[in-house]
Structure formats: C-alpha cells, structure tokens
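Inverse folding, one chain.
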C-alpha cells in the first residue's frame, strides 16, 4: 500500500501538480494542512485537493485564518497580506471544504495527523528534540505525521533509551520505521530547507516504511503569478532557493 503524504501546499498549483505526477499511483493521500496561504493559486489548489481520491486532510494555521477563525495579527506582515488577498479570493465551495476539515485525526489506527504538533495541532512547531519528546506523550499511535515547519525531517524515539534523535534522511531512500517517530514530509509549495524542489513523502503502512521525496517544478512560472497578483515579493523570491 502506498500513501502519499503532503503538507504546506500554500496555494502553489504548479508544485502540487508536479508532486501528484511524480508520486504516481497511490492508494491514499494524507494532507497535513496549509493548503492556502502565501501563494497565487488558492482556489485552483483547493479544487485540485478536493478532487484527490481517498483523501484525508487536516487544517493548518493558514487555512484556519482564511476561514476567519484566527486573528491575523499573529501572522507576520507579508503572510498577513497574502491571507487578506486569499480570504477575498477563495470561493464558497472551497470555504465549505476547509470548514469540513478536522484539526487532527488518526488514520489506519496507527498514524496521528496534525499540521503543527499532536499536542497543539494548529500552532506548535516541532523543530527540536525536546519539543518532539514532549509531544510523544500527546499521541497514542506509533507515528505522528506533521508539517508546519516546511522542513523534511524525522524525529525518532528510541523506546529503550527514551531518547529522541533528529534525522534528515536522504531523499529517495526507503526507511524502515522502528520504535516511534514524528515525521515531516516537508512542504509542497514553499520548502524552507534550502532545497527548492517540492517536498513530499511516500508511506507504506504495511511495510512500515517512509520515503522522503522531492519533485522539480517550474518555479519561475509561480513567481510570475505571485508578482502578477501583487503579493509580497518575498513570497516569490524565497521559492528559488527554498528558504
Ligand atoms: Zn505552512
């Protein structure tokens, strides 16, 4: 069984299309939120996501903001500008879809899905081993998949030593999962780990393997649309180097 794991699409249709094509045939798709925010294609990305068969999707902080359920003051100036623009552009059917999403869920009985972290699904970033360790007490499944940091990485808990390690597994490698882990597939639409290629992962629940992957896409075309929409230049510039 192949599960496509995606997160932080951020209204970047070109990156999403590249990932869906590169991933090929999958049995299910799990999306960890932030479908909107930053990018130029909120409606097109929402429509593409809604059309994905066997989809499980949770809410990210940008999705919650576009729904009007979060104070925009908590976002930085540029992110806020994009959110205002997106809130006005997203059509009612797409808003209804966002409204239907949960903040967290459990799939296959053994994976917890959340955008930020299992203990604070919309906001907390899992960026270091201490926060990861504290979060292992907040979910009952062997694995949790999270996004939000836009960093493709994995926190592994050694059950015998009670020690958490942070690993950045090589792209393309199929990793057998042991013990417990918090895994981040990286960001489709705005990678921040200095690799500008769209990030995603393939999870096999039967074999218990995780494969971090990247897909190249036409970054210049997306930058052009960001500029044409009058969105902050920073959101266009950062895509080229992945920061
Ligand atoms: Zn995000």
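Residues assigned per position:
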């Amino acid at each position: 069984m192949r599960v496509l794991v995606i997160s932080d699409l951020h209204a970047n249709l070109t990156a999403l299309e590249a990932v869906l094509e590169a991933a090929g045939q999958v049995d299910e798709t799990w999306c960890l939120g932030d479908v909107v925010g930053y990018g130029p294609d909120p409606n097109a990305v929402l429509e593409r996501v809604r059309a994905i068969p066997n989809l499980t999707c949770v809410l990210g902080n940008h999705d919650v903001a576009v729904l009007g359920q979060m104070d925009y003051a908590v976002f930085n100036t540029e992110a806020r500008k994009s959110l205002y623009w997106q809130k006005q552009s997203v059509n009612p059917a797409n808003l209804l879809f966002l409204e239907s999403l949960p903040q967290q869920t459990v799939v296959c009985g053994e994976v917890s899905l959340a955008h930020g972290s299992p203990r604070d699904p919309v906001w907390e970033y899992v960026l270091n081993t201490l926060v990861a360790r504290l979060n292992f007490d907040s979910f009952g499944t062997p694995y949790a998949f999270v996004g939000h940091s836009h960093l493709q990485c994995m926190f592994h808990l050694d059950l015998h030593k009670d020690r958490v390690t942070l690993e950045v597994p090589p792209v393309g490698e199929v990793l057998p999962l042991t013990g417990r882990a918090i895994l981040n597939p990286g960001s489709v639409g705005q990678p921040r780990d200095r690799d500008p290629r769209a990030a995603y992962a393939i999870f096999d629940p039967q074999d218990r393997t995780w494969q971090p992957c990247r897909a190249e896409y036409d970054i210049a075309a997306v930058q052009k649309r960001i500029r044409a929409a009058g969105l902050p230049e920073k959101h266009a510039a950062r895509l080229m180097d992945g920061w």
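The chain has a mean pLDDT of 96. The chain has eight helices and twelve strands.
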